Amino acid sequence: MAVLCGPEGKRGFVHPAFHPALAVIDPELTRSVPQRLTAITGMDAFFHAVECFLSKARQPMTDMLCLEAAHLVTRFLPAAVDDGQDLNARTALSWASLAAGMSLSLSSPISQHALEYSFSGSNPESQHGAGLVLLCRPYFARLIELAHADEDTSDRLLNLAVAMGFGVGGDEDGHPFLNALEALLEAVGLADLRPEELGFHAEDVPQYVTAALKLTGSRQFVNTPVPMGEDDVRAIFEGVFER
What we know:
The protein is mainly alpha-helical. It has helices spanning 35-54, 60-82, 87-106, 111-122, 128-146, 151-163, 176-187, 205-213, 219-222, 230-240; strands at 2-6, 9-13. The protein has one domain (37-240): Up-down Bundle (Dehydroquinate synthase-like, alpha domain), CATH 1.20.1090.10. It has ten helices and two strands, in the order ββαααααααααα.
């Protein structure tokens, strides 16, 4: 996949010619990645897995890869953030990132990625993974609300929670996946990330909504398991600034 940022915002391109003949994944080379960047890129890999698992373009191979990646990121990203020299954690995360990346080729992300393109497209200096972190709470809360009558998507969200170590029979209030997501953000030090840190501001919500709606024909929106309209997109962006 190739990504370009320009006047129309951020756009992704997929073509078989982009696939390498050989990819060497060496966890040793990730030891020097700074703590915050480790957390942000790890969460990016996590959302690749989550979105592809929920995507209408999913298949049995991506189901397996996505659940494995979501589990490994939840288990090992906090350790890698805490100690960047932890080669065991770095190795597990390298495989998780690869597995999630394979799922992007075999399946498709959903509209969380399309909405983030509105953020990073408006400010090329921002970090894609950080934009996904900002969006994740209101995005998945809205998705869960919209999917209340969609048994398959609801089950998949619970499967993700179990993969993250949050059983569906626990005593916690709220949805298990949202609880698991919140715990992961806390564990990697991103729970208090604010949009202003990345140059995003509440007064620009109409701009973000307009940019996102231009992508409603993209594979991200098309493969979202429940329909998301303008009101949903606006509510998600507004939710980013309500914390």
